[in-house]
Amino acid sequence: MFIVNQSKFCTLKVLHGDEFSDYPKMKYLNGKIIYINTEELHFDVMDQIMKDIRYSVDNVLYYFIKNPHVCLDFELRQLSVDVDLEHLCDQVSKGYKLIDLYVEIGHSTVMMHSLDDVEPFWNHVPIEATPSY
Question: Would you say the pTM of this structure is higher than 0.90?
Fold first, then answer.
């Protein structure tokens, strides 16, 4: 669990209810948006948000974030384990108070790359996204 202190308070812009278009010019199609203020960043919080907006906890959820000021084609990153949330905390510590959190439910349409990758993701072979547990 990652706790964000008061000076690191942030808002999650949760985009849910649809999926991503194909690369290039990737978009999140026809999704719904809610805003959640939080001081905690961990999967239990994100799963509770999804439950609160009427998604079953039995669904497989895929969480993604986008680096601020960069398009989805180049900086979409999957969150699948708690350690990945360190990237969110890094964004908040750099002063970003609005974090775009994208959610796909049941299956994912995204070509993925690891948080450790430094190459643009179009150099990677498409692989199946990993469910968040």
Answer: no
